[in-house]
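Hey team,

Filing this mostly as a record. A colleague (T.K.) asked me to run one chain through the structure pipeline before their review meeting, and I want the input and output archived in the tracker in case anyone asks later how it was produced. No errors, nothing strange. Just documentation.

Input sequence:
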Amino acid sequence: MLTKEDVPKLHEVLRGPMSEAELELLRDMQAFIEFAIRNGLSFAMVLSVLGHDINGLVRHRANLDEARSQGFYPKAEGYSKYTAEAIGEPEEDVGE
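Output structure:
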């Protein structure tokens, strides 16, 4: 249950704009989803990875820096840097 003390913290979390690190993590999550679709990963696998990342951030009031300082590592981190040249294309289109 929210208390009066929580309201200013909530306003701080919901206020924008996003930091570069937050934008980068969202791009990584997007790239992970695209990677999963292209490579035929299961829906459950995608939910597991994204659920881990979202849960870890929610536990730290969506504060990415705080979460990282406590040892949290997002599983989708880095996926926006993967390219077809780096990992190769699937032999057949498994997403259709």
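Quick notes for T.K.: Residues 20-38 form the longest helix (19 residues). The helical segments are 6-14, 20-38, 43-58, 64-69, 84-87.
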